[in-house]
Amino acid sequence: MKAELEDASLARYAGRFVWLELDFDRRANQPFIARHGVTYTPSLFVIDPSDERTTAMQLGGLTLPELQQFLIRGERGVMTKARTPADAALARGETHMGRGQLPDAIAAFRDALRLGGKSWPEHDRAVASLMWALVLRRDRPPCEAIALAEAPHMARGEAFTRVVLAGMWCANSDASRKIFEQLAGEAAGLPSTLRDHRFQLYQQLMVAAQRRNDRATLQKWGDRWLAELDATKPANDDERSALDVARDDAASLLGQPERVIPALMASQRAMPANYNASLRLAQAELAAKRYGDAVAACDRGLVHVTGPLGRSWLLTTKADALLGIGDRAGARRALEQALRAAKEIGVKQARERNVASITKQLGAIANGTSNESDNRRK
């Protein structure tokens, strides 16, 4: 999203919006994140400054044309009332989403779809918003049912892609997975699909192939994903970091971490003060059983880490690497430090998940049954 937000065409909005970017892991930002129920990044909001009411809300990235429409929609919500009952219900849903009130948001999006009908211009966007609210609430059965009913008949645009992605996450039967896999392959090839969403589609297609032990299809999608990553020249450090996250995901699913280590080493050289670059390199080196190199990468990252979530990631990765070289005492010390950091994470869900995972790892070390943890982007 960084490239879209920095596009010159957005200059005309400069006098109409105040732009604010918040780091999810910084302590000073936690009151806002808690107040607006942020659990997913990126999350975009247009907020009425008079009462902090959310007038437009988006989970996940947007193409440049979609971003422009998002801003217009948010501005309209500040300046005027919605034009129809369906529009009002959709705006109400986005306000609830912006406050983290998922049950109320789901009810409002359902009302909007009922009031607007199939011919309502905002129908597809409302379906996508409902799907993401259901995903966040982990309400799989209705999520799966709605995606099956809506996705095959939707116009092939970004709303279609978001609904297919939600369907892939929610599918709970082989028959549903087969349908969504076909639709996901179609969505991945659409020129309108946002790159971040295409990468998520690749990931879900690889997971689907892995689930049925289809190595050839897994390799096909992994090779396609890594080829696109290698062909993409990052415009800035944020984009470079996002590409590295995708590299790490693709290589992990393929079980081929050595394929991305050279690119991750180049990123660390390009961003020596970016702890994420060190973390991604450490994770790949750990997977490749290059334990000493992984420890060194974690130590470099810890010098520059900016918050407790990042610190706990680095320390748990370091602990896994230390276990790999047989240093159980060092691993225990790293995990004890990681636990102290995890208890300071501002977002409750992330804090509880990390504390539970690290506590379990410490118990495993004490019992002599320790295994590598799964600390990838908790």
Please describe what this structure looks like.
This protein has 378 residues and is mainly alpha-helical. Among the domains are: 130 residues, no CATH class; 72 residues, no CATH class. It has 18 helices and 2 strands. It has a two-stranded antiparallel ribbon with strand order 1-2. A hairpin with a 4-residue loop joins strand 1 and strand 2. Helix 8 runs antiparallel to helix 9. The longest helix is centred in the C-terminal third of the chain and has 20 residues. The chain is globular and about 65 Å long.
- What's the N-to-C terminus distance? 21 Å
What global shape is seen? Answer: globular
> Could you tell me the mean pLDDT?
89
Largest sheet: 2 strands, antiparallel
Q: Would you list the SSEs in sequence order as H and E?
A: HHEEHHHHHHHHHHHHHHHH
Count of DSSP helices?
A: 18
Strand order of the biggest β-sheet = 1-2
Strand content: under 5%
Structural class: mainly alpha
Radius of gyration: 22 Å
Q: What's the total number of strands?
A: 2
Helix content, binned percent: 55-70%
Pick out the low-confidence regions: none
Spell out the blueprint of helices and strands.
Elements: H1 2-5, H2 30-35, E1 43-48, E2 53-59, H3 64-79, H4 85-98, H5 102-116, H6 123-136, H7 140-150, H8 158-170, H9 174-188, H10 195-211, H11 215-231, H12 237-254, H13 261-270, H14 275-287, H15 291-304, H16 308-324, H17 328-342, H18 348-367
Antiparallel strand pairs: 1-2
Helix pairs in contact: 4-5, 5-6, 6-7, 6-8, 7-8, 8-9, 8-10, 9-10, 10-11, 10-12, 11-12, 12-13, 12-14, 13-14, 14-15, 14-16, 15-16, 16-17, 17-18
